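Morning, I've got a small favour to ask if you have a moment. I'm working through a protein record and want to make sense of it properly. The fold is given in discrete form, as structure tokens running alongside the sequence. Can you walk me through what the tokens say about the fold? Thanks so much in advance, here it is:
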Amino acid sequence: MISLSNLAVRFGGYTLFENISVLITERDKIGLVGRNGAGKSTLLKIIAGHDEPSEGTVIVPDGCKIGYLPQQMKISDGKTVLDEARSAFDDINARTQELENLQNELAERADYESDAYMKLIHRMSEISDYLHLHNSSNIDGEIEQMLTGLGFVRTDFNRPTAEFSGGWRMRIELAKILLKQPQVLLLDEPTNHLDIVSIEWLENFLMNYKGAIILISHDRRFLDAITKKTFEISLNKLTSYPAPYSEYLVLKEERYEQQLAAYENQQKMIADTEQFIERFRYKATKSVQVQSRIKQLDKIERLEIEKKDTGAFKISFPPSPRAGTIVFKTTDLEKKYGEKTILADVNFCIERGNKIALVGKNGEGKSTFIKCVLNETAYSGEIQLGHNVRIGYFAQNQDEILNEDLTVFETLDAIAVGDIRTKVRDILGAFYFSGEDVDKKVRVLSGGERNRLAMAKLMLEPYNLLILDEPTNHLDIASKAVLKQALQKYNGTLILVSHDRDFLDGLTTHIFEVKQTKVREVIGDLHSYLQQLHTEVLTAPKPVISASEQGTDVARCTDVARYVSTTTQKQNYEQKKEREREQRKLQTALKKIEERVQELENQLHELNTYFIEAAGSITPDDYKRHAALQDELDEAMAEWEKIAAELE
């Protein structure tokens, strides 16, 4: 469907990547991976047509729609959530209006046999087919399903988009892209602003998406569930693996071992050759051999091999001072912003050594609850900290509140006290800041580097209660794995807010859900909690919607059968198109096999003629060739019969 040919991106004398040539077919589900800065986002921008490559071409077929969700984008304000989502159907609305205008014009004309009249009929037929294909009768139903799946409730639909945070407005943009149903989806970290429930919904949606998908994500479970291929950008090149992320890691390791063996063999050969040249450079009797070896070295294409990933930081949290059995306890905790109640009647206690995942939809009050515990906001009720509790806190925007004018070293040195000041460089080294890196200004650091620096601040003194609010933002998969291992070994109490299921799985011992102003403990691990969520969704009563209420097409349609019929018609039409696509593929395959059969029959005919005319000079190899051709013809005929039967 989309062809990339010899793509290269260069900045001055620096090459980001080069010689990328690959074909993206109509049903490909591809995970795009590579180290931070390898060029993943740049490649998506080029495919989307937002950037131009330094070299090479991108060929996109006419009529191929591409939906592109970048990590950061400008989001328009001034409309309600529902109106903004409806803008995804501007082309359908325009065609619907055009059809209505044509119908009105047609009703006033009487020149039934004129060319102009027939053109009107033809245009109306084209528009009707297009609207039928895109199921234009159920636009509001599709919008409601999409918005609720991404976490909005019906009361949000008529709220202005300006009232929502950047993360929620990104969800609106994602909804618009998905509603347009483009043939190709380019998604750059789509789960960054989603909670666990919305990630689960989006995952299921994309698993069943009929178009092509190229996905950048640091969520390993998300990649494994959706993708079937993995494109890796490494050493300025793109390598394709026919497997999802976890299987790709195995294939990559096998490939690395092969590359390492070839690299070591070449290095040995180069060293031996250089040793020969140096040894006999000044001997006249060996001058020819020396010059030959020099030319040989000049012609060698030097193999490159990527170093093992040492970019993931290696950390170990300081041993925590012993606290009391009860770390903290809440009694009738309540928090309001004006008239809006965020938390109410919150009563529970946290015991020493608990590792708690604090989960719930965005906006339900997880961060507010943490602020109450830290006494950063006023509340009613009571929060009692236990004996000798010392809290270490990683804020969700921790990387943003660092002083950008300080260097990496100065950031830690400014708050280090006592003997720990002598270990600042060791701590930074554990977080992969070494050499000149420690003298970099914070302002030039990437998001992942800032997160690592903010995490390093927690190493400056021992805490027995760590509260981490989205600590994995901007971290790559390898770095998240190392952080998870460090937290598993941590002997203190942990409260963790995260939407990364793979990160939470096996790390936390308790699940606390913040939902509808309450905080409740969920018995079981993360897997049990997700299963419970699915059960609640399946058993939840369906809302009763009056026919006069604004909302879905079903609500406005008094004849339910009409809605079901519309849905069935769309399904039948899609099934018909799928059959037609399969039929075309089979016809193409049948034509190729027929050409091959004809070619083999011609070769056998020529060989038979040779046997008749040159009976005395036939060799055993001639008989072997005849038998091989006959076997190949038999296999081709069997394949032809199989395809013909499928086509029939």
